[in-house]
Amino acid sequence: MREQLCQLPKIDKILKEPCFKAKNPSLLKQIAQEQIHLLRQKLLTNLPLPPYEDILTAIETAYENLLTPSLKPIINATGVIIQTNLGRSVFSPKLLDGIFPLLCEYNNLEYDLQMGQRSERYEHIKQSICALLGCEDALIVNNNASAVLLIANTFAKNKEIIISRGELVEIGGSFRIPEVIVSAGGILKEVGTTNKTHLKDYQNAISSDSAMIMKVHQSNFKQIGFTKEVLFEDLSALAKKHELVDYYDVGSGFIAPFAGIDEPSLQEIASKNPSLVSFSGDKLLGGPQAGIIFGKKHLIDQLKKNHLLRALRVDKFSIFALSAIFRAYLENDVESIPTLQMIRQSEEELLAKAKQLAELLSPLPNLCCEIIALSSKAGGGALSAQEFPSYGVALTIPPIKPQILHTKMRLKGLVGRIQNNKIILDTRCLQPHHFKQIQDIFAEIIDEENNAKSPIKNA
Ligand SMILES: *Cc1c(COP(=O)(O)O)cnc(C)c1O
To answer: Within a domain: residue 125?
Structure first.
C-alpha cells in the first residue's frame, strides 16, 4: 500500500505543468492538494490510480468550476411574473444604464453637497415616494420582512400588537407574521377568528398594554365564503382615537394606474391617512429587494433612531435601483419597468408571441408543438386569486421523456413547466430576444440526442 501511495503525483510537479501556467498558483495548489487527497483515499480503498493526464484534467476542471459563476441568466417560461426562486423582478437595460456610472465612481450617498456635511441615504428616494404616493415621509430597509421587524421593535417592544387571526400570514421561505413580531420583542394580541374579525374585536382588545393595531394583507391566499375583515381606514381611525400606531403590511403593493387589478393601490392606501405602511421593492413594484416604509414623519423619525436600522439598512445598489424605478413611475415610463409590462400585455400580444415561438420551434426535427391558451399568475405572494389569461406553446420531443427534457432545458437556462406530459412554455415573461435563444436551446438538445443515439456518426 505504501508503495502505491508513492505513485501519487507530487504537487510541485503538477504546479509546474505548462497547462497551468496562467493560473493563480495558490488557488491551483489548494485545488491540486484536494484532488490528490481524494486520490489517496481511492488508493486506500484499493481503487486504481487514474492516468496522470486524467489527474491534470480533473484539477483543471475543478479549478474552472470554482471560477464559473453559479448565478446565470434564466429564461422564465413559467408565466409567473414575480418568481422568488428566479430572482423576482427583472430590470430594463435602460434603467441599468443610468445606474452604471454611479457604481463606477464615488457618489454622494450620504453627503450633502450644498452644506458639505453628512446626510441620509434615504434622502435620495424620499421625495419621489412622497410625490408618487402623497405621503409625509418614507424610509427604506433591506426587505419588507425587515420593515415588519423594525416597526414592531420600535413601537411595540414588550407591548401588544393587535392583529386579526385571519391575518397571521406565512409567506414562503419561513417568514411568519407571529414569529417576526415575537422576534421583534412584541406581544401578539390575536383577535377575531380565522374567517371573521369585526371592528369590535379590535376595540375590546385595546388596553394599557396595547401599542399598535396591525393589518396584514392576505397576499398569498384568499378567503371566500362566510368571511369578514375590517377596512384599514376603520382600524386607522380606531388606533388614532386610542393613541396607538396603525400599521398596514401591504406585502406586494402596486402603484396605480394599473389595468385589471382588483386590489387597492398604494396611492389609495396612502390617501387614507395611515400612520405607517410597508411593502416590498421587488414584487409588483418591479424594483430591487427592499422594504419601503411610508407614513407619518414623526413615526419615521422614531424608526430612524432605532439602532436596528443600521442592521437592516439598504446598500447603494438598492438605493440607485429604487430611485431609478420611482423616477420611471413618476414619468409613467412603463417600458422601463418590465414587471408592469408583463402584467399589462393584451391577449392579442401574448397570442402573437406564442405564434412566433411556435413558428421558430415547429421546423426543428422531432419537435412537436402547438399553441395553447394558458392562465398565468403574478406570483411572489401577490394577487393570489387573480388569473391572467395567457398564451404559450405545449411541446414534446418524442423519444425524450418530459421530465428529462425539462432537466436538459433547465441546465441550458430555460425554465417552463410540465402539464399532461408536455413541456409548457408560457410567453408572458418572454422578451423578444429570448425567442431565438429558445430555438437554439431546443436545437442543441435535439442535436445532442441524435449524437448520443449514433455515436459512430459522431466519431
Ligand atoms: C412578501 C411579504 C412580506 C415579506 O416581504 P419581503 O420583501 O419578501 O421580505 C411580508 N408581508 C407580506 C404580507 C408579504 O406579502
So the answer is: yes
Which cell goes with 52?
496522470
Q: Could you tell me if the CB of 427 is within 6 A of ligand 1?
A: no
Contact 114, 262 (CB under 8 A): no
What CATH number is attached to the domain comprising 213? 3.40.640.10
Percent of the chain at pLDDT exceeding 90: 80
- What separation in Å is there between the alpha carbon of 355 and the centre of ligand 1? 36
Nearest CA among 175, 154, 180 for reference residue 308:
154
As separate numbers, helices (DSSP H) first and strands (DSSP E) second, the chain gives 19, 17
Q: pLDDT (tens digit, 9 = 90+) per residue, 378-413? A: 777 777 778 889 999 999 999 899 999 999 999 999
Q: For atom 2 of ligand 1, which residue has the closest CA?
A: 251
Q: Would 88 be classed as within a structural domain?
A: no
* Ligand 1 centre distance from Cα of residue 145 (Å): 6
CA dist list (Å): 267 to 124, 147, 425: 20, 19, 35
**Is 438's C-beta closer than 6 angstroms to any atom of ligand 1?**
no
Q: For the CA atoms of the chain, what is the radius of gyration?
A: 28
Residues 348 and 222 in one domain: no
Q: Find the domain containing 258 and state its range.
A: 93-336
pLDDT tens, position by position, 89-112: 999 999 999 898 899 999 999 999
Q: What is the DSSP letter of 331?
A: T
Residues 310, 385 share a domain: no
Does residue 319 share a domain with residue 368?
A: no
| Amino acid type, 375 | S
Same domain, 51 and 148: no
Give 458's pLDDT tier (boundaries 50, 70, 90). Answer: very low
Q: Using a 6 Å cutoff on CB, does residue 218 contact ligand 1? A: no
For the chain, the domain total comes to: 3
Closest-CA residue, ligand 1 atom 15, reads 251
pTM: 0.91
Report the separation in Å between the CA atom of 202 and the middle of ligand 1, taken as the mean of its atom positions: 23
- E-strand ranges in 183-331 read 187-191, 210-216, 245-251, 276-280, 291-295
What's the grid cell of residue 265?
Answer: 393601490
Considering the domain architecture, whether residues 325 and 379 belong to the same structural domain is answered as: no
Q: For position 259, what pLDDT does the model report? A: 60
Q: State the number of CA atoms in the 13 A half-sphere of 436 facing the CB.
A: 2
